[in-house]
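Could you join me in thinking about how sequence relates to backbone shape in a protein? We need material for that, and I hope you will provide a protein of your own picking. Once you have written the record down, we can walk along the chain together:

…
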Amino acid sequence: MKETAKVIPIGLIGIFFLLVTACTTTLAPSYDQATVNGITETNISLMKLFATASDGTQKSTYAERQGIYNKLIGNLDALVLQSKSRPIPKNSVIEKANKHLTSRGIKKLDGENASSATALEKISETITKMKVTDEKQGVTAIEVATFKGQVIIYMDQALTYENFLKR
């Protein structure tokens, strides 16, 4: 009799485990190859701009780069929109975490947009600042390296997030 009592709870635990592991919760938008391709192509174009400007630029030659800046900023803004347009599933985990964070006076987790959208917005802002600086006075080699460093950080975040979705 005692052995039967031990078998039933273990059996129930096994069934419960199978049911729980069979359930999946989607916390992120679905993978989109077009978005990854767009980010990758824009990354290549960004690195070409940085390579071209690596020794610094002169205000007098800004017109040669203006079209490149405009194209990059337009591509980045389009990728932000494309990334934001993918629905992110609602889930109770983020909602509970946000309630807890709010009760402690901490900023909520942003469950509205993919992390890549935020990173791409930051890249667009950085390239816009570089463009404005280049137009006003040109950019020094150190400024180019600084802009590039910031872009690399955000581009790494965007590519890592998007490639992770392929899992």
Notes: The chain is about 75% helix and 0% strand. The mean pLDDT is 82.
